[in-house]
Design brief:
Length: 117
Amino acid sequence: MRRGLRVMGYTRRKTHDTKHITQDVKRRCKMALTVPKLIEKARKEISELTGLELSSTVGALKDEKGWHITVEVIEKHSTPDQMDILASYEALMDDDGNLLGFERKRMRRRMDTEVTE
């Protein structure tokens, strides 16, 4: 009878070097990030890439392309605060939290409300 190490449907016969599992098995065992972790990572990436201060997270949506995380940043501080210029950026991320792209979607004054239907 053959004895071996079984991980995620793969069997590797025991040798003197059982500590090393193939990269493919490691990749398959790796868990995808949770939504809060993806949002946290997207916020950090947008802030670092734009150099702008974060305001809020607007949304997170998954489709066939990946995760679309939308955050608002402060483009320009004003006095009074209601006149601040806010911009919505959308980050596209894969399940592992890698940034695939980002884009500024719209800008508004803080005091302007958005109409949702």
